[in-house]
Amino acid sequence: MEQHLSGTETDSQFSLFENRAPGSSRTPIHEHAHDDETFFMIEGAMTALVDGERFTLRPGESIFLPRRIPHQLLNETAEPARYLLLCTPSGFEGFLAAGGSVLPPGTEPRPVSREDIERMRSAAPDFGITILQDWPLDTTQSAIGPE
Predict the structure, then answer these.
(1) What three-state secondary structure class fits 111?
(2) Which of 76, 97, 109, 146 shows the smallest number of beta carbons within 10 Å?
(3) Residues 71 and 30: beta-carbon distance below 8 Å
(4) What is the pLDDT of residue 55?
(5) Which residues pair with 2 in a beta bridge?
(6) Is the predicted pLDDT of residue 2 greater than 50, yes or no?
(7) Dihedral sign computed on CA atoms, order 103, 32, 69, 121
């Protein structure tokens, strides 16, 4: 992720990032204890699963993901997608520094490796992020159906 603004620059009010999601990619199902996320699509299309409900986001559209609500982002197309991520309050940059990667402006992301995934899983609890193995049973059956 490319960081545009950090908590240091915003008096800890928010952090702003830009991310590129390759085609056929997804985040793990997860929830945040300490921060809310707002996504704004710039290019491509993404699917946001929020507490089991499906939302399709296209350029110019946004979605608010409140803390403590399970969610997942998916690029279900073959084309890359690009979006802005606003985290309120700031702090997500700490997770990226410990478990992910903050890219210099204009840098293309590289494919995620097994080592990257393990580093993210290890760092997540320190930043109030819970990675779930599956959707809670009471939210998925009607919204996304069986796998």
Answers:
(1) coil
(2) 146
(3) yes
(4) 97
(5) 18, 103
(6) yes
(7) positive
Walk me through the domains of the chain, giving residue ranges and CATH numbers: 2-131 (2.60.120.10)
pLDDT tens digits, 53-111? 999 999 999 999 999 999 999 999 999 999 999 999 999 999 999 988 887 777 777 77
Alpha-carbon distance of 129 to 123, in angstroms, equals 9
Rounded to the nearest angstrom, the gap between the alpha carbon of residue 67 and the centroid of all alpha carbons in its chain is 12
Name 60's bridge partners.
Answer: none
- pTM of structure: 0.86
Q: Is 71 exposed, middle or buried (0-12, 13-18, 19+ CB in 10 A)?
A: buried
Residues belonging to the chain: 147
**How many Cα atoms occupy the beta-carbon half-sphere of 114 within 13 Å?**
0
